[in-house]
Every structure is written in structure tokens, then in C-alpha cells.
Amino acid sequence: MSALPFDQRDGWIWFDGELVPWREAKLHVLSHGLHYASSVFEGERAYEGVIFKSTEHSERFRRSGQLMDFEIPYSVAELDAAKALCVEKNGDPNVYVRPVAWRGSEMMAVAAQNATVHVAIGVWPWPSMFDMATKMKGIRLDMAEWRRPDPRTAPSAAKAAGLYMIATLSKHAAERKGYADALMLDWQGRVAECTGANVFFTQDGALHTPIADCFLDGITRRTVIDLAQARGMDVVERRILPDELPSFNECFICGTGAEVTPVSEIGPHRFTPGNISRTLVEDYAAAVRPRARAA
Fold it and tell me: How many CA atoms within 13 Å lie on the side-chain side of 198?
């Protein structure tokens, strides 16, 4: 991924219904979304020019806005078309896709019912994080100090910007200690997710993953569950306690950015990436690519 700052790149961003030059896509410093986190977003990938599960992402994008008490002023079909246009216009068929919606600058207080809702879509190159040999060694995770909140205290089903504040803090702390990411617990001390990815474990040939009721039920997560069940694997969604970690054989995380990435360590606990992780890495890689799906 390029180290060039995101405000100094060339290309096109879809902004409130129009394609504008990348460097001209700006908002006012007194936008409500900046001050009060009234913003939602999506993380998607285009493979070979086709955005994987674009419509599912657009549907969730609109639901996230509704959970944040605003209506995104574009239909699912319009959002799908705008994302596809961005991928085409920027000329790279393999990119990360970022739709974002936020309340604008008409009101600057906690309440902002009359603020205009803006929508922008940007795309940029983001290759797979690891080749297969490196990926199968597994990444190392820290244990985060911050916890996912009680769903009665935050709109946890929304992909809302404010919910990522503690993810950023946890990721920074982990990276300072040499880890790739951090595993977060929920408000009751049960295993939840990583800072931007869901987590799975294997035990006796079955997959175990936390119930997604206080964190995002990722589209990649649901895809992995479908792929595993298509292979005849049992998938158990349940409460998982930290003291169970030594009983698992394999562990992997999944998300749009991470795709499917095996884990070798979580704090003091060790895992050996094996056949189940490899199978799902390969199955997911095939599922997201149009030519592989068509074969």
C-alpha cells in the first residue's frame, strides 16, 4: 500500500452524486460527523474489477445510517452503481472500497437533525497482506485492555465511526509491543473480536466463533461460515471465555482487509495454523474472485 498521504493522491472520489478530483474532495472542519462521530462507513474490496458482495455492503451501509438516526440519501442500487463507477474510473481492478456518510456543518451541537447527510466513496490499492507461505505462519495478537461495550450503550450493529475509537487505541498498543493486532473481550469479559476483524477457533474439527451481539457481524464472517458449512464443517456460534483459549487447535481472523488470516499467538497462548485454516484461506480466495467463481 502506498505511503502517500490520503489527501495528496490522484484519482477520483464520488462525492454527493458526482465524481470529483481526489484532492478536491473536502469537508468543513465544523462538520458534525467530525465532532460528534455521526458517521458510518463500509470496507469492501474489488477483485478483478468486481466488488465482492457489493449489494450486501450497500444494504448494511444504509442500515448503519438508520441506526445512527439518519437516512443515507441514495438507494442500494445507486450506491452499487457509484462504487462500480469509482473502481472503473480509477483504473485499478483490485482495490479497497470505502463508502462513508456523515452529518454536515449546518448544525454544531449534540442534536443535528437538520444537518445534511453527505456521502463519499473512495478506492485505493490494497493488496493481500501476506503471501500464502507467510500467512500460514500465523500472526501474533495481543490481549486488548479495552472491551467491546454493552449493546445497550452503543449501536453495535452499525458500522459506525465512533465504535472504532477503542479499536484504534487497542491496535496502537498492540503494535507498540510488536503484535499485529489485538483480541478484544466484551463488557462481560468474553471473547469478542479483533480491532477490525472477527475471530474463529477450531476444536475437534469444528469451528467456534463468538456470538456477534455486541460487535459487528461481519460480511466476511458470514461468508466464512457459509464456506465452512459447504465443506461439511460444524460451525458453533457461542459464548467463548478467555480461559478456553488453550483448548483450541487453530485460530484465524477474517475481515475485508485481513481476508482470512491464521493466528499463531494470542498473548501467552499458541496455535498451529493447520488444514482447516488453509482450506478456508483458499476457499475464501476463490470465492471473492469472479473468474474463480465462474470456473
Answer: 24
For the chain, the average pLDDT equals 96
Distance of alpha carbon 95 from alpha carbon 127, whole angstroms: 7
> Dihedral, CA atoms, 275, 277, 283, 289, nearest 10 degrees?
-140
Domain boundary among 104, 125, 146: 125
Percentage of the chain modeled with pLDDT above 70: 97
Phi/psi at 8 (5° precision): -120, 30
- Catalytic entry in 53, 135, 159, 171: 159
Q: Predicted confidence band at 33 (pLDDT cuts at 50, 70, 90)?
A: very high
Task: Clarify whether residues 79 and 223 are in a common domain.
Answer: no
192 three-class SS: strand
Domain range for 172 is 132-294
197-217: average pLDDT: 97
Do 272 and 191 belong to one domain? Answer: yes
Closest to 151 measured CA to CA, from 160, 142, 141: 160
- pLDDT greater than 60 at residue 2: no
In this structure, the answer to whether residues 91 and 149 fall within a common structural domain is: no
> The domain spanning residue 27 has which CATH number?
3.30.470.10
The answer on 289 and 158 residing in a single domain is: yes
With contact defined as beta carbons under 8 Å apart, do 175 and 225 qualify? no
Per-residue pLDDT, averaged over 139-166, amounts to 97
Q: What mean pLDDT is predicted for residues 79-106?
A: 98
* One-letter amino acid of 63: R
What's the pTM value of the predicted model, to 2 decimals? 0.95
pLDDT of 1 reads 46
3 state DSSP class of 170: helix
Q: Which of 90, 125, 160 is the last residue of a domain?
A: 125
Q: Is 159 a catalytic residue?
A: yes
* Residues 140 and 114 grouped into a single domain: no
Lookup: cell for 77: 442500487
In a domain, 235, yes or no: yes
